[in-house]
Amino acid sequence: MASVVRTRRLLKWVGNGLLVVLLVWTLVPFYWMIATSLKKDREIYGFEATLIPRHPSLDSYRRLFATTPFVKYMRNSTIIAVSTTLASLVFGSLGAYALARLRFPGRSVIARGLIFTYLVPPSLLFIPLFAVMSVLSLIDTREGLILAYLGFTVPFCTWLLLGYFRSVPLELEEAALVDGCSRLSALVRVILPMSLPALAVVAFFSFTQAWNEFLYANVFTNSVEVRTITTGLTLFIVEDVFFWGPMMGAACLASIPPLVVYLAFQRWVVKGLTLGAVKG
Amino acid sequence: MGLPAESTEAYHGGVLVRAPTLSRRPRGSLRLRREARLAYALLTPTLLVVLFLVAYPFFSAMYLSLQNKMVGSPGRFVGLENYAELLRDEVFLRTAWNSVVYTLVAVAIKFVLGLTMALILDQSRRFNNLFRTLLFLPWAVPVVIVSLNWRWIFDDLSGFLNNFLITFHLTHDIISWLSDPRLAMGCVIAVVVWAGTPFYAMTFLAGLQAIPKELYEAAEIDGASIVQQFVFVTVPRLRTIFVTTIMLSTIWTATNLQFVLILTRGGPASRTQIFPHLAYEIALGARRLGMGAAVSLVFFPLLVVLIILLTRRMLRERED
């Protein structure tokens, strides 16, 4: 017993030490990103380069807004991520309700197909999907990109909501049906209000995935009017010349929306993780 | 989710039939048919998405890989010619080896580091919530931004790493992190680990916190040491989470091309070339869609085994 107590105290100190190491490892890249965005070029490149900005300035941000289509990219990302989220919520809820509450041939095959679909990686699909998009003239449109994103958000949303809807007590829904509610209004009035945590998780994942996505955006879009911030960022590299100041400024700003939703939804996120919600 | 799944069968078998509103409706198979029609109507958007955006492209990738199609020109059926060409190609063989090393090493390190992180955060400590939030931050940042930022950290002349090492006299010469053939793969893996570890730590921490404290107390009364407690209480309870997490992460690590695309573009001399990035280069750089599809599919048989196992696992976990 005594030795267990002693070991535990020792482990506590080992843990504290490792925690410091892990915090440094995790936070230094963030520091460097922010520090770079606050430097002037003189401190960024060459012999006068500094580890800590000596004369912090917002010059990079000024250049970012004045000389690059940064705002346009951010707007495109917002439109695309929000639309994807809304569509996923609606499609996911309808599909999940059918799978959770109605009996019909093919139900279990569909449920199985959803996970399978979700697990098929985008890097396998982007080549033929490029062909599909070309045929439908959806290349370089926001609609095309939203559609492509639904390919991975909808199966996941449906799958996650299915599990949750099943756990909503049947009695409540029956009461609504007895009162003359249709199936759809039972879904909207009874099941959805009781599934808010699950809807929050689904919204969170759809939004972050659409905001952070790069491969499809890079392959399916090419004009400034449509590009999202993730692919727009890489355009700041011109002929292998990097404009690191403005680029790190853009990186900081573009990370804010996903970080904010992460901080807001933190406690619900972990539940969804074990269901395979996140591409880690 | 750990929520008890209601049996829908029991619902349809009993409860629904007792619902008074239904007595006015036609009975038996007609009612079922009506229910089925509603179900298909509700599922239409989901099914369309799955069919057109996943199933069709998936099968068309297979067909495409048997053609010599280029961007903008119709392809001719060439059978297994693309695959045969790949097997003769030295770059392809190197890519195969790289992909395996890259995936295994990255997943192994993420696992160890993620478990360590979770165990540390499971200890009681002041400000633990704050530390947890901070350690999980990389997970929320877009991978493109992570990769660009690290590319800048690794920069030869002005990056943080060389800057730091020279300032503190830890080295005199500039180290070319991403263009040195011996270092490049290690650097790419470091970035993958930085971005991916929080995912492991999050799922493991959730698992650790779900273990009843009484189990540890009982083990302690039985005289189990800390190591024994870990091996006989913690590990068995986390086994399911370990397997699911590793499987998910393996699929996504092996198929993510963003890190390589931004950090090294497969270089130097194909040292960091992996399958998804090679497919990307061939399909979009060389505009050979057929060949690109073949490259991305070569890896697929391995993945599909994982995907099938994982699908089964997730269904089973849901039923429990």
Q: Can you walk me through this structure?
A:
The complex is a heterodimer of chains A (280) and B (320). Chain A is mainly alpha-helical. Chain A folds into two domains: 58 residues, no CATH class; 206 residues, Orthogonal Bundle (MetI-like fold), CATH 1.10.3720. Helices cover 76% and strands 0% of the residues of chain A. The longest helix of chain B has 36 residues. Chain B is mainly α and 320 residues long. Classes of the chains: A mainly alpha (280), B mainly alpha (320). At the A-B interface, helix 1, helix 4, helix 5, helix 6 and helix 7 of A face helix 1, helix 2, helix 4, helix 5 and helix 6 of B.
Number of domains of chain B: 2
Taken as a percent bin, the fraction of beta residues of chain B is under 5%
| Count of separate DSSP helical elements of chain A | 13
What is the CATH architecture assignment of the largest domain in chain B?
A: Orthogonal Bundle
Shape assignment of chain A:
globular
Number of helices of chain B: 14
Alpha-beta classification of chain A: mainly alpha
Radius of gyration of chain A: 24 Å
Gyration radius of chain B, rounded = 26 Å
Secondary-structure-based class of chain B equals mainly alpha
Report the average pLDDT across residues of chain A: 88
- The general outline of chain B is flat
| Total number of beta strands of chain A | 0
By CATH reckoning, the class of the largest domain in chain B would read Mainly Alpha
Name a few traits of the molecule.
heterodimer, A: mainly alpha, MetI-like fold, 2 domains, 13 helices, 0% strand, disordered C terminus, B: 320 residues, 14 helices
Topology, element by element:
The complex is a heterodimer of chains A (280) and B (320).
Chain A: H1 2-37, H2 41-44, H3 59-67, H4 70-101, H5 107-119, H6 122-135, H7 142-167, H8 170-178, H9 183-194, H10 196-212, H11 215-220, H12 229-234, H13 244-273
Chain B: H1 8-18, H2 29-64, H3 81-88, H4 90-122, H5 128-136, H6 143-153, H7 160-167, H8 184-209, H9 213-221, H10 226-255, H11 258-263, H12 275-285, H13 289-298, H14 300-319
Helix pairs in contact in B: 2-13, 4-8, 4-10, 8-10, 10-14, 12-13
